[in-house]
């Protein structure tokens, strides 16, 4: 038996009729010699001390409540309760109690609280009979009435009887008349008794009594009674707040008196539940369930009545979108819609569907587009809440609107771009609004909730729209904050100022001076002349954008792949590895980890051609011997590559960075990568020796050409993308005489190259690590004119041919590093080996 089944909390009822928590422990039933009988024992889970030792008396009335509670009284004023974590544990102990008392475990109460004959009479008596004799309703009897109401709460049968008696005799109105008399006489003791009486009647949980208590005639007197809590030195002033402070605003006059009365009643009852009544204890949670239901059905009725009044809603929308409407009025209108949408959450699904369709028909989305661009922060916040209700209800409805809007409007005024701008320009230091908007954007671009039909696919249409019209707005802060080099910094700042100025013009000038964050908050980094955001708020914003882009990598396949490669996005993201904010560096690393996690060879070649592991390894070396989250995340990245045996990345890492990483011995990750690399190399050599040279050469040339054509066709499909591809086609094939004619000569040149590498090892830093230079130019990704400290490649000549003889081995080695595992074809291993032979035509890398 698991311990959780018998895990309980022990409660005792104090003098104020409140339950006190005596501790948490584990209960058991066992025979106790001192008590001479079966007993309940509870030992504390913290130190094993005895929290409870209670003999199961044959005549004690035990009650089982809510499937996980057992309540009983051991003395006249000493009530105990066990609250079980699991129903199974409660059932087990209940069976032990019933076994001792000779009762059927199916009963809820082991002893009758009233005689069976009396219970039979209760069932036979007509409902109009007086089931409980209520004391005369007068000042001298208030204490007796309070004791009666409090005493029946533990018995469901007596609660029913008392509720019926109160209803039949019109007793509540008589009590409220006594309240007025006590208040006039300043009878404090009587007012304290009335507080207990009214609170107890609320806990009877009867809708028929609520109808009386919450009527216009009685509700303010009920609130008055609840002001005089005996535990307070001075009474509260709830009535003063409800009548003077709380003002009912009609944005459009409500002509229906029943609707107005229902709104007033709902507000006041909600106030009683949330403000006046204390938070119910674990034993009182169900006492107010009917009160919650009363409020719930009131809200349903209010929403239905407003929805049916089309004239009212049309007038609200007309004023909301009217330019002549003053700011205060518009603020009230937006707040009305916010509360209206909140009430709609109480509707049944089919009714809620009709509600939002009504709002869409009346033009809620165009109206939101206007108010979300206003200067008033409160209005924008309320509009965001309304937008969240719409997105959560029907993302497809919002997507359909913005795609139709794109056919008629410019990109800068599209609803989604307005939302993105609000996210970018959130003035909250903690970016609370930006986080909310980012979640809504993620819902909108999530393919999981997009519909697919026979005629059209929402996923394809919307993602095409998003990447063509919105993605540049989302990534603008990221691209601007990761400028390629210092010489472009001034241009980038001016460019982003132009973007912000443009957005301000189109969005009603709601951008604040903070949003020109590039001017003051971007500082030069001493690493490779890159710049990195050091302002905390800017770093938070970039982290949010990266989180959204990481989501895109996981869910959008070729759309985000095209965007990353055309914008050289991963290189720009990895600049953030230099940030002093570790959380931002981790976001950049997580973005790369998701890309590598796809095990896509297009991404892998993009990474190796651009030497994009360099900033990651630099970050690892800079971190030194510190054992922190950044260290673990980087190690996990390389461990994933090792475990998944991603050959192209393994070869690139070992060939270019192993000398810098071999000193890291507290994990076996890098040694494991070297082992994988050497095993693969041996396997390739064995296959190479078993295949005739002429066959290898011909087949390699044919397959490489087919591969090149396939890749170029794939990248040419996206005609809408702007900008130049990062991985550009390399120059035409080299002349045949540029390569060694025999495999033996090739191996000799390779050995010469390795001896050169030893002379050009990376310089050791002050921390005994190695340091690399991270090139931030797009040429590195293109594979042209890129330089590495580890493996240097001579610059290509103007006609694209490689250097002769002296630099031959270097050229071949550089080519080899970029051709490992382009695509996982069945004979991939053989083709890799063919590359090491002397092909008659140098294979080209497709873009």
Automatic annotation (TrEMBL):
Location of the region described as Disordered in the Swiss-Prot/TrEMBL record: 712-847
Biased composition (Basic and acidic residues): 731-762
Residue intervals of the Serine/threonine-protein phosphatase 4 regulatory subunit 3-like central domain: 144-521
Matches recorded under InterPro entries: ARM-type_fold, EVH1_PP4R3, P4R3-like_central_dom, PH-like_dom_sf, PP4R3-like
Domain PP4R3 EVH1-like: residue ranges: 5-101
Any one cellular-component term (Gene Ontology): nucleoplasm
Biased composition annotated in UniProt, kind: Acidic residues: 712-722, 825-836
Compositional bias ranges of the Polar residues kind: 763-813
Domain of life: Eukaryota
Record-level Gene Ontology MF annotations: protein phosphatase activator activity
PANTHER family: ATP SYNTHASE GAMMA-RELATED, SERINE_THREONINE-PROTEIN PHOSPHATASE 4 REGULATORY SUBUNIT 3B
Similarity comment text for this entry: Belongs to the SMEK family.
Name of the molecule in the record: Serine/threonine-protein phosphatase 4 regulatory subunit 3B isoform X1
Name of the encoding gene: PPP4R3B
């Amino acid at each position: 038996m698991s311990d959780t089944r018998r895990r309980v909390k022990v409660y005792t009822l104090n003098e104020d009729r409140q339950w006190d928590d005596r501790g948490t422990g584990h209960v058991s039933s066992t025979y106790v010699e001192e008590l001479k009988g079966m007993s309940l024992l509870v030992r504390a889970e913290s130190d094993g001390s005895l929290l409870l030792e209670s003999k199961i008396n044959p005549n004690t009335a035990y009650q089982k409540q809510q499937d996980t509670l057992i309540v009983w009284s051991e003395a006249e004023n000493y009530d105990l309760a066990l609250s079980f974590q699991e129903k199974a544990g409660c059932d087990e102990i209940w069976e032990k109690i019933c076994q001792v008392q000779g009762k059927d475990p199916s009963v809820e109460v082991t002893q009758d609280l009233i005689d069976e004959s009396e219970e039979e009479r209760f069932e036979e008596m007509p409902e109009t009979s007086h089931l409980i004799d209520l004391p005369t309703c007068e000042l001298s009897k208030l204490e007796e009435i309070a004791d009666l109401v409090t005493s029946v709460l533990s018995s469901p049968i007596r609660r029913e009887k008392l509720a019926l008696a109160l209803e039949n005799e019109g007793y509540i109105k008589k009590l409220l008349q006594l309240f007025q008399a006590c208040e006039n006489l300043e009878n404090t003791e009587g007012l304290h008794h009335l507080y207990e009486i009214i609170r107890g009647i609320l806990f009877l949980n009867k809708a028929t009594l609520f109808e009386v208590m919450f009527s216009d005639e009685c509700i303010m007197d009920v609130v008055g009674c609840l002001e005089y809590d005996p535990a307070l030195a001075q009474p509260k002033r709830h009535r003063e707040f409800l009548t003077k402070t709380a003002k009912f605003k009609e944005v459009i006059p409500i002509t229906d008196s029943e609707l107005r009365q229902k709104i007033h009643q709902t507000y006041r009852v909600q106030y009683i539940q949330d403000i006046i009544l204390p938070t119910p204890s674990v034993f009182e949670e169900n006492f107010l369930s009917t009160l919650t239901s009363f409020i719930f059905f009131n809200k349903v009725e209010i929403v239905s009545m407003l929805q049916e009044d089309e004239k009212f809603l049309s007038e609200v929308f007309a004023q909301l979108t009217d330019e002549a409407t003053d700011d205060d009025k518009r603020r009230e209108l937006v707040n009305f819609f916010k509360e209206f949408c909140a009430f709609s959450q109480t509707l049944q699904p089919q009714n809620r569907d009709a509600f939002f369709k009504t709002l869409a028909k009346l033009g809620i989305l165009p109206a939101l587009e206007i108010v979300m661009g206003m200067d008033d922060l409160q209005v924008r916040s309320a509009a965001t809440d309304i937008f969240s209700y719409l997105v959560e209800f029907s993302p497809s409805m919002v997507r359909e609107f913005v795609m139709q809007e794109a056919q008629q409007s410019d990109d800068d005024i599209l609803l989604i771009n307005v939302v993105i701008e609000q996210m970018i320009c959130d003035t909250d230091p903690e970016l609370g609004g930006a986080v909310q908007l980012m979640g809504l954007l993620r819902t909108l671009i999530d393919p999981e909730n997009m519909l697919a039909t026979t005629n059209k696919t929402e996923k394809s249409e919307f993602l095409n729209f998003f990447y063509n019209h919105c993605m540049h707005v989302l990534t603008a802060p990221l691209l601007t904050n990761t400028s390629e080099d210092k010489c472009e910094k001034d241009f980038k700042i001016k460019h982003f100022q132009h973007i912000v100025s443009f957005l301000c013009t189109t969005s009603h000038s709601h951008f604040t001076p903070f949003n020109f964050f590039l001017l003051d908050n971007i500082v030069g980094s001493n690493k490779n002349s890159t710049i990195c955001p050091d302002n905390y708020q800017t770093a938070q914003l970039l982290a949010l954008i990266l989180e959204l882009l990481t989501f895109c990598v996981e869910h959008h396949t070729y759309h985000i792949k095209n965007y990353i490669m055309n914008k050289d996005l991963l290189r720009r993201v990895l600049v953030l590895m230099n940030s002093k904010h570790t959380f931002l560096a981790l976001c950049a690393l997580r973005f790369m980890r998701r890309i590598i996690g796809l095990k896509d060879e297009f991404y892998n070649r993009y990474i190796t051609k651009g030497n994009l592991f360099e900033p990651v390894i630099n970050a690892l070396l800079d971190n030194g011997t510190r054992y922190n989250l950044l260290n673990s995340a980087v190690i996990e990245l390389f461990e994933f590559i090792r475990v998944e045996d991603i050959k192209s990345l393994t070869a690139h890492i070992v060939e270019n960075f192993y000398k810098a990483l071999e000193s890291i011995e507290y994990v076996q990750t890098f040694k494991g990568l070297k082992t994988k690399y050497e095993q693969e190399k041996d396997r390739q050599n064995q296959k190479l020796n078993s295949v005739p040279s002429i066959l290898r050469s011909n087949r390699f040339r044919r397959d490489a050409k087919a591969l090149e054509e396939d890749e170029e066709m794939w990248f040419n499909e996206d005609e809408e993308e702007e900008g130049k591809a990062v991985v550009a086609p390399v120059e035409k094939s080299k002349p045949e005489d540029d390569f060694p004619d025999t495999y033996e000569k090739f191996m000799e040149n390779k050995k010469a190259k390795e001896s050169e590498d030893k002379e050009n090892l990376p310089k050791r830093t002050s921390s005994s690590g190695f340091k690399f230079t991270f090139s931030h130019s797009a040429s590195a990704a293109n594979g042209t004119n890129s330089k590495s400290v580890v493996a240097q490649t001579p610059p290509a000549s103007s006609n694209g041919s490689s250097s002769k003889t002296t630099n031959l081995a270097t050229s071949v080695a550089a080519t080899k590093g970029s051709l490992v595992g382009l695509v996982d074809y069945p004979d991939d291993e053989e083709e890799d080996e063919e590359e090491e032979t002397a092909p008659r035509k140098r294979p080209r890398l497709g873009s």
